[in-house]
Design goal:
By secondary structure, the chain is an alpha/beta fold. Helix content is 32%, strand content 18%. It has a single domain, classed as TIM Barrel. The protein has a 12-stranded mixed sheet. The structure holds S-adenosylmethionine and iron/sulfur cluster. Iron/sulfur cluster is lined by residues 20, 22-24, 27-28, 65-67, 98, 120, 326.
Amino acid sequence: MIDPFGRHISYLRVSVTDRCDFRCVYCMAEDMTFLPKAEVLSLEELERLCTAFVRRGVKKLRLTGGEPLVRKNVMSLIRGLGRHLDSGALEELTLTTNGSQLAKHARDLAAAGVKRLNVSIDTLDREKFRELTRWGDLDQVMRGLDAAQDAGLKIKINAVALRGVNDGEFGDLIRWTHGRDMDLTLIEVMPMGEIGDATRLDQYLPLSLARAEIAKQFTLSETDYRTGGPARYFTVEETGGRLGFITPLTHNFCESCNRVRLTCTGTLYMCLGQVDAADLRAPLRASESDEVLDRAITEAIARKPKGHDFIIDRRHTGPAVPRHMSVTGG
Ligand code: SAM
Ligand code: SF4
């Protein structure tokens, strides 16, 4: 699949549910309304959709959400998709998770062919963690991490940089992740979805500032390491570990975008930062053969926009796109 700007689309991110057992303050409002179950694709339908994308050249699949591991029977989907790894059609199957259910699932994930996980942890302070996630338990997440590493899974920690919340902790996060042989990526907060009282302008911390702060304590050497994503990586000389920065607001990375995003209702977003989307649920359900679906995918890819328009400043305090990150999974 090649889009109008010559970019090869080889990466599909799938939000398998919009539900979550946390309510991170930058991601969701406390009283979120979730989709009625009837609108959500069955696991079999999700597998069929993903398989259509793999047949069209997708090499990397990431399951996300909401929290992917809270979806009932999600392991059956993961095992099903793992078969494409065995055949060689798919190169990587991976997940982004908050880690709360990892202790239960880590072994099965490894057995299904998952090799790497992104786990989101923004702070190492239990109290702060509970406040940020509104009801998450850091110890439970830590048990999940232990289980995942015991099962041989390679972990990258994602932390959203939040002004006045974790901006004093970057050094600790670096030492902790690298001490456990995990990479760390810092993410800029993106203006997606209404989140209640908290305003993103208050939370927003440009990573250029975070980097300057980190550079006071550590020596950062640029690397050309890429994971096929938008992060720019540095080696931290003191720890030997890797530190990534995802900066959608201060740095535009759209030129090399290779991805599209599927929601659990079968809506395909061609860009995280735009509203345009294509419905694939109707074509999926229209026929048992994938012909109609394939046509819809082709048409959607032809509409992939050049880039996003994220902006956070005093004049733009509302969300740039109305949907929450939990719809498309980041
Ligand atoms: N629940 C899983 C988790 O937290 O890892 C997967 C879904 S979550 C939406 C995916 C990632 O998006 C997480 O790392 C989360 O911190 C990040 N995220 C959520 N809302 C965000 C926002 N408004 N700006 C930037 N990152 C955000
Ligand atoms: Fe849930 Fe992940 Fe959003 Fe936090 S960031 S509320 S864990 S979906």
